[in-house]
Every structure is written in C-alpha cells, then in structure tokens.
Amino acid sequence: MEETEIPETLVKEIEYIKDLEAQMANAILEEREPSGLAVNETEKQRELEKWKENVAKAENLKSKMLLLKLAADEKRRNHEDKLKELKYRENKIVMEIMRAQEDYKRTLSGIYKENDLLRREIQTLKAKCEAKNAKCGESAQSFQLKRDIPEKKMKCTQLENIENEEDYMNISCLFHITPKIPFRLSQGEALITFEQESVAQELIKKHSHTVQMENEKILLQALPVTLETGVAFELHSKISRRNFEVSNIPELNIPEEWMREKLELHFCKTKLGGGVQKVTYDPWSQMALITFAQPLAANDIARFGSCFFNTSGWTVSFMVSPVTQRHLEQFQIFSGISRKTILLTGIKVEEEDVENVEDMIVIHFQKASNGGGEVENIKYASKGGKIAYFENDVI
C-alpha cells in the first residue's frame, strides 16, 4: 500500500516556517553584533514582538504538522497490516485452490479409469448379449412358430354320451391341427415328388441331370428340400351353455344397478335357458357376464353375436359370445428334409407353357433308365416365384 501524501498547502507552510526560523536566527545575530547606527528602541521592540508572534504561529503549525504526521504514520501502519492480512488470505486461497485442483485431477483420473473399466465391461456384455441373441434367434426359429391356419368349414360327425353334469353344461370340441409348411420356389425352379423315397434320394446323389426339352437339352441340379419348422397339436375347446360374455357395452351414464337390470330384462325377454340367473357387470371394461338358469341349445348359441336393445329412446349395440375355455395338447415341433421331394434348379427354357415344361420333366424322371420312378406331383415356377405347401411330405 502507498504512504499517505502530505497536502501541498502543508508543504508551503513548512517552507514558510523554515524561512522564519532562518530570519529569526539572523536577527538574533544582528542584535549581538554592535551597531554604529542609531536604532529606535520602540521599533525594535515592536519588531521583536512581531517575530515572537510569528515564532508562536510557527510552533503551533509545527505541532499540527507533527500530529498530522503521526496520524498518517498510524494510518499507514493500519493499511500495511490490512495488506499483510489480505496477502495471507490470498496465499491461503491459492493453496486451497491448488489442493482442490489436485483433488479434482485425482478424482478425474479415477473417473477415467472407472469409465475405461465400464466401457470394457459394456463391450464384454454386448458381445455376450449378441451371442445370447443369436442363440435365442436360433431357439426362436426352432421353437417359436407362427402359422396362419386357414378357415375351414366343420361338420360334426358324432355325439358322445354325457357321463356327468359338467359335460352336459358345456359343448366340448377336439381339433387335430397339422398346418401345411410353405416352401418358396424361385424362377426357373421346380419341385418334384416321387412315390418312393429311394428314387428321390438316388437322384439327389447323382446331382446333375441332362433333360431333353423340345428343341434343346438342359442341365439340371437335383437338391434336397429343407423344410421350415412345422407343428402339430390338438386343440381342446369347451363352450359354455350357461355363461355368456357381453362386450362393447356403451357408456350410458346410468348407475351400475340400472345397467344390470336392463341387461337382465333384455335376456329374460329372449326366453332362453329358463331365464337369467345372474348378471355381473363391470363398467370399467364395459363387459358383463350373463348366467342362464338352464343350458342353452346349440342352435340358440349360434344365434348370438351382435345384439341390439332399446333403452331411453336409444338403440344400443353390443356383442354376445359364450364363455370358452381352450388348451393345447400333444404339441409337437418337427423339421427336416423331405424324403420324397427334390428341388430342381437351372431350368432355363424359352417355352412359356408351364404344363408343357412340367410334362417333359416328368417324362424324363419317370424313366427307370434315367434313375427315375413314378411321380406323384410336380410344381414349376416359370416367372417370378411360387409358394408350395408340404403336408405329410406331399406338395
């Protein structure tokens, strides 16, 4: 910190005092020296008084100067102490910042190391996950199947005797399901099925076959047919003759009890099953369960579906279906290579008549001299592609 500066006026007064002191010293010397001139004692006395007055002023000013100097020195010492304290605090803060930076560097280095470990662990887990996903994909391809079962008309061939009351309350059905396995044929390929497995296997072993078409000979390759995974199972179903599910009930902003009464009144009017025994209504799912007192006939059950009833001047639509229980039994998964069918590739002919091409291929492979035998079926894709379906190893 800088020292306190002395005001300019104070400097001038100090110089003035010094001049007075010098003049007083000269005057005293002159009084001590003898003088040959006549001096007026009165004037000397006045001049002396004047000098004394100036000296008093100078002394007073000197005292003030000393006091100001002492105050300035005290103020300077205070500022010096404050400056020392500020420097001490500054050094302390600098040390704390340096320690914090060192701690931060150590923490950051630890974080980097931990991130590297986590990154390596993530890569390891990703590799394991990819391996698991690949394995799951293989398992899914082997065990998880999705097949569209086409709709078919059913005909009841026989009725079983009812042995207990539970069987009387339900309609039991058993379905044997064996979906067909699809196989995609590309352009210029054909599938041919023989009556005997041995014929197909021998043709696959020979692999290459020269077939005479109308105007040229073509070289075909016989390959095994690898089929996708198929399933076979039994579907057991029980259709209740007393419990029916009502769905898509619209919201009418009426109490639940009123809705139950309206549903009960509606189904009582149908005069089915000896009247309604119980109605359970759930407004959140907009569904209800209707229980009839007596079992309904199969023809009456078949009449249900979309129903209507009038209430409060509105025509309300909802769906009615019997409560059904289903479960699978004897679920079997199978896959493999067809034993009686072979895939022929490399069919490049100008003939556009598909039946004509199929006939010429069949003629060739029916001859025993060509290693063939009786043909059950053939399917040829001349343009684009085709889908062939396998069931019991038959196209």
TrEMBL record:
UniProt feature coiled coil, ranges: 41-135
Domain Nmi/IFP stretches: 109-188
Subcellular location, principal: cytoplasm
InterPro entries: Nmi/IFP35_dom, Nmi/IFP35_N
Pfam families linked to this entry: IFP_35_N, NID
Subcellular location: Cytoplasm; Nucleus
Domain NID stretches: 190-276, 288-377
Keyword Coiled coil among UniProt keywords: yes
Keywords from the named record: Coiled coil, Cytoplasm, Nucleus
Cross-referenced PANTHER family: INTERFERON-INDUCED PROTEIN 35/NMI N-MYC/STAT INTERACTING PROTEIN, N-MYC-INTERACTOR
Name of the featured protein: N-myc-interactor
Organism this protein belongs to: Phrynosoma platyrhinos (Desert horned lizard)
